[in-house]
Specification:
By secondary structure, the chain is an alpha/beta fold. The protein contains 5 helices and 7 strands, in the order βαβββαβαβααβ. Helix 1 links the parallel strand 1 and strand 2. It is globular, with a radius of gyration of 16 Å.
C-alpha cells in the first residue's frame, strides 16, 4: 500500500505527459490514492508583438479542457478517483504554478513526463521538469519519454 494519497499530474497532451498520467493512475489505483489533473494556460504566451488574440486564448482554454476531460475519462476507466483543474497563469513560470498547486491541494506526489532535452534545446526551451523538481515541496516522479521520440534523448 502506497503512502501517497493525493497525486498531482500536470498534463499537456504530449506522449510523455500521457505516459506520466498512466503511471500516476497505476500508482493511485494500487495505493487507493486520488488524482488531480491540471493543465496550465499562459495567456501571455499568446501575445504577438502588440497584437493580442482573444481567439487564441479561447482555443487554448478549450484545448486544455479537452485534455483534462480525456484524462478524467482515463481515470474513471482505471477506477481512480480524480478531479481536474484548468489553471491560468499569466507571466508566471510553469514550475511555480505546479509547485503552488501541489501545496494548495496538499498533494503527496507530483507525477510528470519529461522530454529529456539536453544541450541547446534545453537551454532554449528550459526544463519544466527541472523547475518543478526544484520548487516542489513534495516528491516528484519524473517519467521519461519513449526513446527515439522527437525531443527525447537516447541513453546516457
Amino acid at each position: 500500500m502506497s503512502h501517497y494519497k493525493r497525486i498531482l499530474v500536470p498534463v499537456d497532451g504530449s506522449e510523455t505527459s500521457n505516459k506520466a498520467l498512466v503511471q500516476a493512475l497505476q500508482l493511485a489505483r494500487d495505493g487507493g490514492a486520488q488524482v488531480r489533473l491540471i493543465h496550465a494556460v499562459d495567456e501571455l504566451s499568446y501575445l504577438s508583438g502588440y497584437e493580442y488574440s482573444g481567439d487564441m486564448v479561447r482555443i487554448a482554454r478549450e484545448h486544455g479542457v479537452d485534455l483534462l476531460d480525456q484524462g478524467l475519462a482515463m481515470a474513471k476507466a482505471a477506477g481512480v478517483a480524480a478531479d481536474i483543474k484548468l489553471i491560468e497563469f499569466p507571466g508566471q513560470r510553469l514550475g511555480q504554478v505546479v509547485a503552488d498547486e501541489a501545496r494548495e491541494w496538499q498533494a503527496d506526489l507530483v507525477v510528470l513526463g519529461t522530454h529529456g532535452r539536453r544541450g541547446m534545446s534545453r537551454l532554449m526551451l528550459g526544463s519544466g521538469a527541472e523547475q518543478i523538481i526544484r520548487l516542489s515541496a513534495v516528491p516528484v516522479l519524473v517519467v521519461p519519454g519513449t526513446p527515439g521520440a522527437p525531443g527525447v534523448r537516447q541513453g546516457n
